[in-house]
Amino acid sequence: MNGHVLLVEDDRSLRQSLAQTLDLAGMRVTQTGTYIEAKDHISREFDGVVLTDIRMPGKDGFDVLQLARQRDEQLPVIVLTGQGDIPMAVRAINEGAHDFLTKPCPPEDLLRVLSKALELRALTLKTRALERQLERGDIAAVNFPGPSLAANSLRTALRQYAVLPVNVHLHGPQGCGKRIAAHTLHELSEAEGPFLSINCRDLTLESMPKLLGEVQNGTLCLRWLAEANTGQQQIILRLSENTDFRLITTSNQPLRELRRNGLNPDLFYALDVATLPVPGLAQRKEDLPAIFESFVRQACRSLNRPMPEINGHHATISAREWQGNLPELRNFAQRVALGVQEMQTRANCPGLSEQIEAFERGVIVEALSRHDGRAAFAAKDLNLPRKTFYDKLKRHNLKPEDFRHNGS
To answer: What is the mean pLDDT of residues 278-292?
Structure first.
């Protein structure tokens, strides 16, 4: 159990005993004996929670609570009270304390309360960090969070393409976030006009004048390029030559595969200037916890509900194959936010072998993505004999060609 606790307790022996309990649980403890010692540690940037006694000489726990509320209303403060001080504890709760504990406090109760408070603090600080990224214009990090190489490569490419005066083709599996990527390009480009997203199948010559008027100086995203018929492909070709807006097209397959399936050659060359693969969740296993937390947080905001306990779901989301990609994971997160998705218990949590299998698959997917689907290079990178590597590909139902960015 990790976390930082600011301990404010004037009784030296009790303070040391509490600090030892927290230290053994893996927490980092800052010990203080008075309000004066504690006040310099309390700030909006403090990365932990406050555990304070109520009764202290001079300024007491209520003063500590008041100071914490002034500097950061979302900083959890847990108060310690004697058996006869329950009315004081109730007063502290009414004034904004996160919780209260009576002395002597059983270690398991202390650690349980602190653990929940620390998780809440971590989520608060993470949300603020994301909001700061959004304010700085780093919408790529907000829309595609996570530490994986696939996510990092995508964010970098989105930032680079956004400032270039070129049309872009996005491709990737259904539900991977191609429309989100298109909107991210629009936002990063600082285009003055609107973002308009329509299905290629809805394109007609009659709709062109209105369409061109609506998207002036903005971004036009045409989805499902593979569904466009011959006449609609001619319209898209004309749109690609218009410099009054940026054109973004999307499909589940790379352009070269679309060309093999009958895409107009002139349209192919018009769109093949800047193409960008958007990875599915199978290629972003490392990102699943970050994406899941982001979806739960969004759902709680829209539903005006408190953030639930989510650690118990991490084993599930990491081991599960999200065939529906982002929409499927978003629905799962919404059920968690609503409280209708049961948390994994020890009885139904994926076993060690299942979690190892999921981890191995994620490592192989990452290697294939890193080497553009070239199996021999991926096998060498993982220090595996080629036959062993291909056996693992077969077991995990992975095809190297699915990870080739150019579709070849």
So the answer is: 93
Question: Measured between alpha carbons, how far is residue 320 from residues 151, 172, 238, 292, 394 in Å?
Answer: 19, 20, 43, 13, 18
User: 61, 16 in Cβ contact below 8 A?
Assistant: no
Long-range contacts of 298-304 (CB under 8 A, 24+ apart): 298/333, 299/333, 299/334, 299/336, 299/337, 299/338, 300/337, 303/337, 303/338
> Quick one: pLDDT band at residue 347, thresholds 50, 70, 90?
very low
Cα distances (angstroms) measured from residue 109 to each of 21, 22, 55, 113: 12, 12, 21, 6
**pLDDT one-digit tens code per residue, 37-72:** 999 999 999 999 999 999 998 999 999 999 999 999
Measure Cα distances from 48 to 123, 226, 408 in Å. 11, 51, 51
| Domains, the chain | 4-120 (3.40.50.2300), 146-279 (3.40.50.300), 281-350 (1.10.8), 354-408 (no CATH)
The values of phi and psi at residue 314, to 5°, are -60, -40
> Amino acid identity, residue 115?
S
**CB neighbour class for 408 (10 Å; exposed up to 12, middle 13-18, buried from 19):** exposed
**How far is it, in rounded angstroms, from Cα 397 to Cα 357?**
12
Amino acid in the structure at residue 129: A
Largest CA distance in the chain: 84
Distance CA 68, CA 74 (A): 9
Strand partners, 78: 51, 99
Q: For the chain, report the end-to-end CA distance as a whole number of angstroms.
A: 48
From CA 256, how far away is CA 407, in angstroms rounded? 6
pLDDT tens digits along 226-247: 999 999 999 999 999 999 999 9
